Amino acid sequence: MKSTKLNIQNNKGLLLQAYLELPANQKPNQYAIFAHCFTCTSSLSAVKNISRALTNYGFGVVRFDFTGLGKSEGEFSESHFSANVGDLIAVSNYMKFNYHAPSLLVGHSLGGAAVISAASQLENVKAIATIGAPATVSHVKHLFSHNVDEIRNHGEVEVNIGGRPFKINPEFVADFDKTDLPSIVKSLRKPLLILHSPTDTIVGIKNAEQLYHQAHHPKSFVTLDNADHLLTNPSDSNYAGNVIGTWVQRYFKQEENTMLETQGEQLVGHLNVVENNFTTAIQTKNHSMIADEPASIGGDDFGPSPYEYLNAALAACTVMTLKMYAQRKQWDLHEVFVYISHSKKHRDALELDVEKPGYLDHISKKLKFVGNLDASQKQRLKEIASRCPVHKTIASKVVFETQILEG
Predict the structure, then answer these.
(1) pLDDT at 407 (0 to 100)
(2) Are the CB atoms for 57 and 28 separated by under 8 Å?
């Protein structure tokens, strides 16, 4: 996916730093805004993972830092709840003027409450998804409740939230009591998806129950089993992103996936070297895929590795070829399994007399047939498995032609 840095001015004239994540084809069908959690930033891994997942469903996603957080201008004391909602509206207006009005809002924790409030004021928003959101805005006050008296007596004071120091004032505290979130949820007539972990120790699962009962249909709830509040396990945030991407399709008109200009080739691969480690978006005319490397070699393991895709191509071609052959012969073949691994093996271990010394590429292909087949038929299928087009391509000498295209 492509990431574009944006600077968006809010209603107080402060610049909010934002990033626009685009699908591999760089032509979104819809736009979404992601609101991060209280005291977090848009660089939180969960925010990036969910945004990345949504791009695979054709969304352009704006993730931004609220006022006074991350690299946005302003002081944290100005980042009260009303200001968060104002920032969301400012980002929505910016997108409407410069790109296209966002139709989906996604919010994490207090950001979830903020997107509900903002969605009630934005006609262009067609659906909302919350993750670990509180049922009331004032819920967040427990994080600094022990300092409330000191704030009343001394004005601005420094408090510790999540191990980090922040300066807050009486206005900051009072603002959390101004918004009646339950009433907003009850009057909201837009599709709402609530995702929450039953083991969330920061915002308890009861909050999800209250939000769900307050909301009108269409409403949905999905549990994030064993996830913590910040979705620190990448598998949790990737799952959340994929659930949102699938859920929201029901409420948006399905559009044909417009292909990125491929210079006449069959597919395009794109890696944002600045934003990602090895996570690579792959796009064909009708399908999107993600490739990555395992964590053991510095990747994020968001998708199969390049060699796993090579194995996948060989496996798919093998079983398809065997199906066609068996059907042509009218053999009683019901299912085919092919198990493939790629590795490097030394010439001596393979007991091969070849000129090339040292290690060679080795592909192990194991076949399993389900059906009423005799030994000779299985042996013939084994021979045919080596004749599938991809197998023949890998086994033969391939001529590569590489060109440099102007950016």
Answers:
(1) 65
(2) no
Q: In whole angstroms, what is the distance from residue 404 CA to residue 83 CA?
A: 47
Contacts of 27 (CB under 8 A, 6+ apart): 258, 260
Torsion of the alpha carbons at 85, 44, 56 and 111, rounded to the nearest 10: -20
Cα three-residue angle 194-196-200, rounded to 5 degrees:
155
Q: Which residue's structure tokens are 């042509």?
A: 328
Distance (Å, whole) CA 291 – CA 53: 13
How far out from the chain centre does Cα 10 lie? 26
Calculated CA dihedral for residues 181, 185, 187, 193, nearest 10 degrees? 160
Higher pLDDT among residues 79 and 324, named by residue: 324
Round to whole Å and give the CA distance between 365 and 377.
Answer: 18
Provide the pLDDT confidence category of residue 4 given band limits of 50, 70 and 90. Answer: confident
List, for residues 207-245, the tens digit of each pLDDT value: 999 999 999 999 999 999 999 999 999 999 999 999 999
Q: Are 104 and 125 in contact (CB under 8 A)?
A: yes
- What span, in angstroms and rounded, lies between the C-alpha atoms of 45 and 365? 37
pTM for this entry: 0.68
Q: What is the 3-state secondary structure (H, E, C) of 113-125?
A: HHHHHHHCCCCCC
Closest CA to 216 of 128, 133, 316, 137: 128
Cα dihedral sign for 172, 175, 181, 184?
A: negative
In the DSSP assignment, the letter for residue 256 is -
Average pLDDT, the chain: 87
Query: What's the token pair of residue 183?
Result: 């009433």
Higher-scoring residue by pLDDT: 127, 268? 127
pLDDT of residue 26 exceeding 80: no
Q: 230-263 b/e with 16+ CB inside 10 Å = b?
A: bbeebebbbbbbebbbebbeeebeeeebeebeee
What is the distance between the alpha carbons of residues 367 and 280, in angstroms, rounded to a whole number? Answer: 31
**Has residue 151 got a pLDDT over 80?**
no
Q: What is the pLDDT of residues 129-148, one digit of tens each?
A: 999 999 998 776 665 555 55
